Amino acid sequence: MKKNKVLFILGSLGLYLLSTGVSYAAFNFLRTSPKLEIESPLSEGGMEINLNAPKTEICPINGLEYTKQEKEIWEKRRPLSVVIENHMDCRPQSGLSKADIVYEVVAEGGITRFLAIYYCGAAAFDTLLGPIRSARTYLLDWTMEYDASFVHVGGAACYADVDPRVRALCQINEYGIRDIDQMGRYGSYPFFWRDYEKLGHSVATEHTMHSTTGKLWEVAEKAGYGPENKEGIDWLDNFKSWRFKDDDKEKGDVSSIEFDFWDGQQDYKVAWQYDEEKNEYKRINGENEHLDFNIKEQLRAKVVIVQKTKETGPVDEHKHLLYQTTGSGELLLFQDGKVIEGEWIKEKKASRTVFNDSRGREIEINRGKIWIEIVPSRNKIEY
After folding, report:
1. Whole-number pLDDT of residue 31
2. Do 261 and 229 fall within a single domain?
3. Closest among 75, 71, 122 to 94, alpha carbons compared
4. Do 93 and 232 fall within a single domain?
5. Distances in whole angstroms, Cα of residue 27 to Cα of each of 87, 116, 301
6. What is the DSSP string of 294-348?
7. 171 & 61 share domain
8. By the 8 A CB rule, do 116 and 82 touch?
9. Which letter, b or e, does each residue of 358-380 get, where b requires 16 or more Cβ atoms within 10 Å of its Cβ?
10. What gap in Å lies between CA 303 and CA 321, rounded to an integer?
11. Are 185 and 252 contained in the same domain?
């Protein structure tokens, strides 16, 4: 009897240690990213994509030229609109250099957040993205311009203590946005995972959620978010491209752009330095070169657009803000070392924002990566 009791105790202890070990291993697996290349080239039909082939195909989103193989890939998809954070503890972020367009706007407390649009630039690569963060109402209005699949981790919820105007999670359904929420149906590994040690040290949980463009387009396909809607209409059929042009031969003398989003938040101050040789702008964030973690290079833009807009709030106890996305406002567009003053116009939530010069004519924009800075109307822009 004593022998059976001892065996039972030993067996129970062994089972406990085994289950504890499995749990610990699983926990540590989920704490780290899978072993994948952070920017690996794709192949098509078993053949490597030749990125050195003639670039004859124009990206409808930012006018940049790509190969026929890349176009064949992006035509089978619709854009991804991904919420990526900019808290000090998460820098450098992954994947911003592969976005066709990046919007930057304050989330709360003067801390900015990015909405990155992926379509052409990421067509030939499976690119690590993150950290991915939560939805805000004004991000939805820009997402709808591209009829994109919206990628986020939760968001401003539909609770009584949240101002009805900012309840992004309710509005996603109300507006009919194609939703990819990490907290939803496809939120588990291998589509999303947390990486606590990517930067070489531990960070808080909210700064750890990642995915890749390849995984997100896989989710979009599973969810039925292909290029066509239920009526067979391709998203591009209703998309309005901006007017694009080649670089000016004569360059201007505007060598830098500087501005704050909020007073007292110097960690989120932005500067863009003009590189005349490459005719691009190099990004400084919080007085440091802003790098992409994947490639360890400074973020660059061909065009920097400062879109001044009305800021309202905080509007509730969660310190949620409202930014004017429709109507019109002051515009500063920087390209070719020059600045163009004008007006931005967006008729309704799903309308394409148009950028006009001071005479009311739509501005022709250089082909390439575009950053759109959503800055409160009261702020001074130095250049």
Report:
1. 43
2. no
3. 122
4. yes
5. 25, 30, 39
6. TTTEE-EESEEEEEEE-EE---STT---EE--SEEEEEEEEETTEEEEEEEEE-S
7. yes
8. yes
9. eeeeebbbbbbbbbbbbbbeeee
10. 27
11. no
pLDDT at 109: 95
- What's the rounded Cα separation, in Å, for the pair 143 and 81? 6
pTM: 0.90
Q: Residue 60: is the preceding peptide bond cis (ω within 30°)?
A: no
Count other Cβ atoms within 10 Å, centred on residue 57.
18
Measured distance CA(209)–CA(224) in Å, rounded: 23
Task: Please state, in angstroms and rounded to a whole number, the distance separating the CA atoms of residues 286 and 318.
Answer: 25
Summarised one tens digit per residue, pLDDT across range 153-181 is 999 999 999 999 999 999 999 999 999 99
What's the length of the chain? 383
The predicted-structure confidence for 360-371, as pLDDT tens digits, reads as follows 999 999 999 999
Euclidean distance between CA atoms 82 and 116, whole angstroms: 5
Cis peptide before 314 (omega within 30 of 0): yes
Within a domain: 135? yes
Task: Supply the range of the domain harboring residue 227.
Answer: 39-238
Residue 281 C-alpha from the chain's centroid: 19
**pLDDT mean over 85-114:** 97
Query: 6 pLDDT band (50/70/90 cuts)?
Result: very low
Q: Which amino acid is at 274?
A: Y
Number of C-beta neighbours around residue 287 at 10 A: 9
